[in-house]
Design brief:
71% of the residues lie in helices and 0% in strands. The chain has 233 residues and is mostly helical. It has a domain of 148 residues: Tetracycline Repressor, domain 2 (Orthogonal Bundle). α5 runs antiparallel to α6 and α5 runs parallel beside α8.
Length: 233
């Protein structure tokens, strides 16, 4: 009489055990890129509320809901973390401004949109809080203001300058120095509101107030440099 082999439910033969072994372990819930996004968001909040000196890698890890081992695997130290949070925020800003530079040829409609992207960055509550923190901690950590100036302030002007250069190449405006013009335009747009918020004199502008300011600044700017009107009284 032939012997019958009885297998337990869930048992495997042949190549199946090796396959089962490969599937063991906790699956990765998100990619490193997604984890970095969570970490950067937590770091911005922690730096803004606690300052650079009082922020620790451990406190950022707790706020982000990741282990310190994971945090150190992705970012080597606190200064690198601060720089990465600034760079990440500016990367998103630059991508938005670059996208809007490629939209259509109606500069009267496009420039206010580009300026709104600039205002959203400069007047973002977390960005303003970071600037306050940098000013407060500048004596203890002199490398931080220099990094912020290069990675954030200069880069935001450069992004707007690149936008203006695209419009000049399309023969929509005439400028002698696009970077100088970008600095003037950005100052006209955000200097007063930023100063009011930084010193606690006024709350951040509402969306409707920013839209009106962007349109007003755009109209004044184009009156002086738009092709066909530049130099006219």
């Amino acid at each position: 009489m032939a012997q019958t082999t009885i297998r337990k439910p869930g048992s495997a033969t042949g190549s199946q055990p090796a396959k089962a072994r490969r599937c063991r372990g906790r699956p990765q819930l998100r990619s490193d890129e997604q984890t970095r996004d969570v970490i950067f968001e937590a770091a911005r909040r922690q730096f803004a509320t606690s300052g650079f000196g009082a922020t620790s890698m451990e406190s950022v890890a707790r706020l982000a809901g990741v282990s310190t081992k994971t945090l150190y695997r992705l970012v080597p130290d606190k200064q690198a973390l601060f720089e990465a949070t600034v760079t990440d925020r500016l990367d998103r800003f630059v991508s938005v401004v670059s996208l809007r530079a490629c939209e259509g040829g109606d500069i009267e409609a496009a420039l206010p949109d580009a300026l709104l992207a600039c205002a959203d960055l400069v007047l973002d509550p977390e960005v303003i809080a970071l600037q306050r923190m940098i000013l407060a901690d500048s004596d203890k950590f002199p490398d931080i203001p220099e990094m912020f100036y290069i990675k954030a302030m200069r880069r935001s002007v450069a992004a707007l300058a690149e936008w203006l250069l695209v419009q000049q190449k399309r023969s929509l405006i005439i400028l002698d120095d696009v970077e100088a013009a970008a600095g003037m335009l950005l100052g006209m747009l955000v200097f007063q509101p930023q100063r009011d918020v930084m010193f606690g004199h006024k709350p951040p502008p509402t969306r409707s107030e920013l839209e009106l300011r962007a349109k007003t600044c755009s109209a004044l700017f184009l009156r002086g440099c738009r092709r066909g009107t530049a130099g006219q009284a």
